[in-house]
Design brief:
This protein has seven helices and eight strands, in the order ββαααβββαβαβαβα. It has 211 residues and is α/β, with parallel strands linked by helices.
Length: 211
């Protein structure tokens, strides 16, 4: 405790603690991506202002997530009530391989792709314990053979792990008479060369197209 004139200032370690339950809530909120301590505290205090029935509804919804929202046994995208929107009425000649079920929704928003999706468990990263076995290559091969897929789109992030995984899958699946492609990387729409980083510009140059 530090005295300052006639007032008393508490050090950070001596500051009053939140109630134990509120601390537990803040700690759990911090597990969300992009949520730091201050943001988690703000969310926690905001939830204290909610009506009890709204809190109860939120709690019941969170508790039901593991049983209500599950990966499709075929493609790995998210499903509910055993119905998969991404497996019905699709063009079976193309297969887009993703590393996250969330990416399927981003691609769907473009309204330009009507093929099948397949979500792998992890991108390859041996240092993090994510090896080729996690890709479940047999499941991908079964779908290629069943639907006589003609094109495989490797839609991964432009990272070392994404590039490594794309190269590995292409090598392993090259025994099939299919065309392999990756999402194009380059200049965002509306950008200028002056403010484009060298990595993005290099991608744009290597992926240039005829006009």
């Amino acid at each position: 405790m530090v005295k300052k004139g006639t007032s008393v200032v508490l050090s950070r370690d001596m500051a009053p603690k939140y109630p134990e339950t509120l601390n537990a809530l803040i700690s759990n909120l911090k597990k969300l991506p992009g949520v730091g301590t201050r943001t988690a505290e703000r969310f926690g205090f905001e939830l204290l202002r909610w009506k009890s029935e709204h809190l109860q509804n939120l709690g019941e919804l969170l508790a039901s997530l593991p049983t209500q929202i599950i990966p499709c046994a075929i493609c790995g995208c998210l499903t509910q009530n055993n119905f998969c929107h991404f497996c019905e009425g699709r063009d079976t000649t193309s297969l887009c391989i993703l590393s996250s079920a969330r990416d399927a929704y981003a691609i769907e928003e473009t309204r330009t792709y009507r093929g099948l999706y397949h979500v792998i468990e992890h991108l390859l990263s041996p240092l993090d314990g994510r090896h080729a076995a996690h890709l479940r290559l047999d499941r991908i091969e079964q779908r290629i053979e069943k639907h006589q897929v003609k094109e495989v789109i490797l839609a991964f992030d432009s990272t070392l792990e994404g590039d490594t995984t794309a190269l590995y899958l292409k090598q392993q699946l090259s025994k099939y008479p299919i065309f392999f492609s990756r999402l194009a990387f380059g200049l965002p729409v509306g950008s200028t060369l002056e403010y484009t980083d060298s990595g993005t510009l290099a991608r744009a140059l290597s992926g240039r197209q005829s006009i």
